[in-house]
């Protein structure tokens, strides 16, 4: 079983929702964390750096290429390397097939598809050096199948899945293992207003996603988990 000692983990969108739950869990697990957030002032108290040496919080905006470069570079500089990237930051616009909303399509392409690929690309040299690098992509069941009319969100998550699978292939020989986590509805701000026909109390918990991430990080290179699907309703794929 792998040890948490000294492993350096980057998490995008760590200030709320699923990213926050993952950050809180991995902090408790004892990892070194580098949190990428748009607004440092919005970081919850639970994630305020108690131990200066265990955490870095850095401005990261998925729409800003330079902020991605600065965050990756500073993380490697502060900790001497990067072992894990958790691509979590994401947005949902609910435009459907017949909506004329190309600006929203572009926005989701930028944040949900291009930005995680960019972070993966920037972190890859460090993950290779690690010898047991990990990329954990928080995708969605919307990146595996189409169930409703959120066409742009689905398109962006299918694209993110393509990037995730490419990273899995390209990283293999250097010990990088990539897991795409595909969940159905999870309790968070994203689903609070956007899934009115489905009660949040019946949705999966962010802490359960965090539990999965925590467990994945304990596995050796020889026990790769390419994909995790998680759902709050019965569904056959
Ligand atoms: N909730 C679900 O049912 C569900 C299901 C499947 C997959 N997912 C995926 O899980 C991930 C997390 O979603 P969530 O449910 O936790 O949503 P959330 O509560 O809305 O949180 C989204 C996170 O992404 C960050 N973010 C948004 N735009 C950003 C940008 N331009 N640059 C940097 N960070 C940005 C947000 O930061 P700010 O606070 O600054 O906005 C926030 O930290 C997303 O990729 C989402 O697609 C969610």
The number of helical runs is 6
| Overall geometry | globular
Compute the number of structural domains. 1
- Structural class, by secondary structure, is alpha/beta
**What is the average per-residue confidence, as pLDDT, rounded to a whole number?**
95
Per DSSP, what share of the residues sits in E-state strands of 2 or more residues? 15-25%
Number of strands: 7
Strand order of the largest sheet: 3-2-1-4-5-6-7
- Characterize the biggest β-sheet: 7 strands, parallel
First-residue to last-residue Cα separation: 31 Å
The CATH level-2 architecture is identified as 3-Layer(aba) Sandwich
Bound molecules: NADP nicotinamide-adenine-dinucleotide phosphate
Describe the model.
- This protein is an alpha/beta fold and 237 residues long.
- The protein has a single domain (8-230), classed as NAD(P)-binding Rossmann-like Domain (Rossmann fold, 3-Layer(aba) Sandwich).
- The protein has six helices and seven strands, in the order βαββαβαβαβααβ.
- The chain has helices at 17-29, 65-79, 102-130, 151-171, 189-192, 206-216; strands at 8-12, 32-37, 55-59, 84-87, 134-138, 177-183, 227-230.
- A seven-stranded parallel β-sheet has the order 3-2-1-4-5-6-7, sandwiched between helices.
- Helix 3 (102-130) links the parallel strand 4 and strand 5 (134-138).
- The chain is globular, with a radius of gyration of 17 Å.
- The two termini are 31 Å apart.
- NADP nicotinamide-adenine-dinucleotide phosphate binds at residues 12-13, 15-19, 38-39, 42, 60-63, 88-91, 111, 138, 140, 183, 185-186, 188-191.
